[in-house]
Amino acid sequence: MSTFSCPNCGDDVTPTIARARMVTCPSCDSTILIESDAVRLAGEQGVMHEVPMLFDIGDTVICGKTTVTLHGHARFSYGRGFWEEFWGQTPSGDSAWVSVDEGDVVVQQPVPASNYPRSQGEFRPGREITCQNQHFRVVEVDSAECVALRGSFDEELKVGETYSFVNAQASNGRLLSGELWEGGQSWFLGTWFDPFEIKVRRQS
User: What pTM was computed for the model?
Assistant: First the structure.
């Protein structure tokens, strides 16, 4: 979809990518859900208080062999602090998330539904789960609230909505993260990086 009028204020909104499913209006801060041939309001984008960041929307982040151009920025609060989630695409068009939490960076990509991990009983710290023939141990089970959004995303996110999540670590440092909700789940697999290992190509 090309440029369209914001259903709240009427100003022009141009998604940065063709596959965007949700964008924020730069004029009135509304979040807009893009459907097949129409757009509708999805809520407010929240207040994104400025903090020092390693990269931002429009930058291309190079982490090891993975390159991601960033299109959307979400902030999640978990009570004692918050972390940043950047959604973007690899050069081949695949979806990827780059997360920053207390200075650490992890790059993750979606796990196909056919490879979702299996666990007997509820996920809890210490439980072992298997995903894509690799063993992980659950290190965190918690919830977080989405408090602000900017840019474009390939899925719908809502400010004020609380998300339950699971983080599990493998012996080689790989991180498996899951989002859980009533009747559904999604999983992401990736690698931690030292911020000094990351290269950033700034948007021109």
Answer: 0.80
User: Could you read off the pLDDT of 19-45 as tens digits, one per residue?
Assistant: 677 788 888 777 777 775 555 445 555
Six token digits for residue 175: 């991180």
| Alpha-carbon gap, residue 22 to 150, rounded angstroms | 10
Q: How far is the CA of 29 from the CAs of 122, 153, 154, in angstroms? A: 38, 15, 18
DSSP SS3 for 197: helix
The pairs formed by 182-189 with CB atoms below 8 angstroms and a separation of 24 or more are 185/116, 186/110, 186/111, 187/110, 187/111, 187/115, 187/116, 187/117, 187/131, 188/97, 188/108, 188/109, 188/110, 188/111, 189/108, 189/109, 189/111, 189/131, 189/132
